[in-house]
Amino acid sequence: MLGKFFHKPEAENSDRVPPGQYLAKGFPVLTYGETPNISTDTWELKVWGLAKPLTFTWSDLMAMPQNHFTADFHCVTRWSKLDVQWTGVKVTDLMGHVEVDPKAVHIMEHCYGGYTTNISVTDFLREENFFAHTLFGEPLPADHGGPVRLVVPHLYAWKSAKWINGLEFLKDEELGFWEKNGYHTRGEPWAEERYSSSGF
Fold first, then answer.
1. 194 domain residue, yes or no
2. pTM of the predicted model as reported, rounded to 2 decimal places
């Protein structure tokens, strides 16, 4: 299995691959539950909680500055893919349209299909994070989270929520799906924050 689908990083890439990770030869798809099928005509991203309620449509997203991103991608199941090429909208550009209460310190990411994951406002607002709608020059496939997913390169990929459709701003940390099931609340790859101390 290791040689067929994954391999150890070469010396020149070893500083880009977190501990315990192997490089994937393709781009694996890991999903809990069924894959939602959402059209760009119906996709929307809602904002609520400790923020002024707002709904972004596909047209709203496309009207924002579009950027190309190249980022490494690290899955908690121990595979990484380097230099993944995306197109999308910076989180900071989208958040320029959102009024957030200063008391908000955490966010619950909500997705079509019912998946949730939590992230701190500090981790969310980093300059390198983005909402992706294109992967390697093609519309983001549904199995990779299309039409839109969040990408948070500095955390394990379960924080880069597929099929995202909601941002709920919170005054306290709440746990999302995998966090309730034993995964770490933050998920930083270089620290191997895979599971909580009370988890598996």
1. no
2. 0.92
